[in-house]
Write a structure and sequence with these properties.
This protein is α+β, with helices and mostly antiparallel strands. It has helices at 24-34, 74-91, 100-112, 119-132, 138-141, 150-158, and strands spanning 2-7, 10-16, 40-43, 58-61. The protein has six helices and four strands. The strands form two sheets. It has a two-stranded antiparallel sheet with strand order 1-2. The protein has a two-stranded parallel sheet with strand order 3-4. The longest helix is centred in the middle third of the chain and has 18 residues, at 74-91. The radius of gyration is 18 Å and the shape is globular. The termini are close together.
Length: 160
């Protein structure tokens, strides 16, 4: 799922999250995790978005028209396109499902800081986030069927 902050004339900050499906319950949970309550949320007319206004969001549905293939959510589609290009270019098409969440986090980090002019502040924020995160032993980060933690990693694979 991709969420994009609207700013006039450009794409604002983004949030990306892997979700387990397209059901209304899954979408509402992801939206409540990614987007601040009270915000305006613009979506296509997929039925799974039907009840997000009950979560305290202003929901605006953009409908496809029968007149053609107009891109109704161009900024979000551009972010998806840039993500695909980044994955293919940076990782040369060699990505692992078990690490998809990390790829999304890295792309989001890079995208949201693409116009920053304060590199010192970026480093400070990166260190602050690194200290706040719980440690992850290397054996938890390595994928593969021989990993004793494969079931934990496998749960990530099955939610794609």
């Amino acid at each position: 799922m991709a969420a994009e902050e609207e700013t006039p004339g450009k794409i604002g900050r983004i949030r990306l999250q892997r979700i387990a499906g397209r059901s209304g319950a899954v979408l509402r949970e992801a939206i409540s995790h990614l987007i601040q309550p009270g915000a305006r949320v613009r979506t296509d007319d997929w039925q799974g978005y039907a009840k997000i206004d009950q979560l305290g969001y202003t929901h605006e549905q953009v409908h496809y028209t029968a007149l053609g293939s107009k891109n109704i959510l161009p900024s979000v589609n551009r972010v998806a396109s840039l993500l695909k290009r980044w994955l293919l270019g940076t990782h040369q098409g060699s990505t692992a499902q078990a690490h998809l969440d990390y790829y999304l986090d890295e792309f989001t980090f890079r995208f949201n800081r693409r116009t920053s002019s304060s590199r010192g502040l970026l480093f400070y924020r990166l260190i602050t986030q690194a200290v706040a995160m719980e440690p992850r032993p290397a054996k938890m980060l390595k994928g593969g069927r021989n990993n004793p933690h494969h079931k934990e990693l496998g749960s990530l694979e099955s939610s794609a």
